[in-house]
## 1
Amino acid sequence: LDLIRREEYESALPWIEKLEKLLPEDASLSGVWGLKARTYRGLKQLDREREALIALTQRNADAVDALQRL
């Protein structure tokens, strides 16, 4: 998370992918799918951001921020 705050997205992505393996169903906005979406947005990979947002909303229908981004 600190890497994302510092906008070190390339460095954050491997950690987030490890987190995904540990907690694939974490559907909180600060969880793996929210972190992935923010990281991909920072990397300007909007298709991948969209995939992460869709994965988040499939797990959490109350993720209003994610729904608005879609």
## 2
Amino acid sequence: TCFCPLPDGTIMYYHDAIDSNSQQLLQEIVPDYQLLKISEEDANFFACNAIVADKQTIITPLFKNNLWYQL
């Protein structure tokens, strides 16, 4: 998976897994500050398979890099 909406309206997604038309549409309807592009490494760890349990709890498989701080 490559797309995960978060409770605050942020969209966590893997840019390279989405076609150019969909990327353009995302950029048109979602403000830049709410687009969280994850790395290929995080995508390979299925970070976008996250489960949003409530407004403050996000349960996700393993992730690398600085994704924790971006969430």
## 3
Amino acid sequence: ANGQYSFENNGHTLTVQVREGKVGVVTSSCRDKICQNTGFTNTEGTSIVCLPAGISVTVEGASHQDAVTY
């Protein structure tokens, strides 16, 4: 579902946004911001990873949502 979701792990906070069928990290407290700079994706099998936080977001398909694993 469309919306913003915040996740905390390893002392870092990520805000993940789902919009128009795409997912992306819109804010991250990590130093490098690689996860945030990855942008939005809707390609099945694609992952957005924040190594300092130990959080990954993986696109699994339109009918199944598994927003974040860590």
## 4
Amino acid sequence: AETLAPAKVAQHGVLNPDAVHTLFAQHQSRQSNNAYMLWNLIVLTEWIEAHRAQIRLSSGQWDRVENPVAI
């Protein structure tokens, strides 16, 4: 699955899938160079996937659970 696919972005509950799709579409059509922003979003979504067992999104705020991830 594509890292920034709208369904995957929505699943995390952190980013607005429509906004991410717009950034990607503008970049793909060369309307704007969103490479840096898209890269940051890719890294964020991959980090969420990698640490999903250690974090959860509840009531719009990140809650720490057992063994929090040190950053």
